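Input record (one chain):
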Amino acid sequence: MAELPLPAVRPRPGIRGWLRTSSGERTELVGYLFVAPYLLAFLLFMVVPAIGGLYVSLTNWGGLNVPRLIGLANYAEALNSAIFWQTVRNTVYYTILFVPLVTVCGLVAAVFVHQRFPGYTLARAAFYSPYVMAVTVTGLIWLWLLNQNWGVVNYYLGYLHPYFHTFRPPWLIDAEWAMPSIVVATVWWLVGYQMVILLAGLQEIPDELYEAAKIDGGSPLQNFWHITLPLLRPALTFVLVTNVIGSLRVFGQMFLMTSGGPAGATTSVVLLIYQSAFQNFRLGYSAAVSYLLFLGILVVTVLQLRLMRGNQAA
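The corresponding structure, as predicted from the sequence alone:
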């Protein structure tokens, strides 16, 4: 006797419920419940302040007075301000010095600790350990190390050459020395993070490729250039993009080590935003500079991603 087919059972929403997407698929509401806390926090602490900051940038608000709409006057003032463009030049100069140096140092450190030698785990910890410190601690350490009169760096330089007994490099008090000094301190602080990201990319490269290259007689330099770098492109892209964004938003090191001096030589755009808001009490102008910085970072990031994708396609 043939079995009769069972009637199709139509699923019901039940307690959890479901929604139908544009493609006709069902999505259970419980998924939205899980992401609801994050979405709520994102709206309250990101979207709402961003919209409020845009409104503030169109006013003359100083924190205590009643905001009055003045249109694009704050933006026009910033774009016509010599101080603003000086901070832009300082930030770009810092980015040009910092990004290539920290990326190369991070790559060298990643390749070094990727080798299986005695104590490689200790070397990884040594490279990464500065990154666990806050920017405040890092700034105070290097402020002490680079002090012109009693800093450790100048003290030991005197042992290396008699010239440094009479000439003590003014690391943080000279306009030409201050920015490179901050860059060196920041590279020491962040190189461990770059190492971890690039090390993860190196570990994804199959060992069979290096073995095949070794059989074909490839040198270590050829293997690095033709195997490691091409396959490490996704990790390098991430590192470069995040480094550029972070360097354009630099604040803590300059605030702690030089306070933007000497003569404004290390005042970044974010430090100008802080000074305008909390020292000069010009919150409207500060918000306008913030949005100009946001637009600049957005343009640089889009151009950088397109350039890297174009090189990858080629």
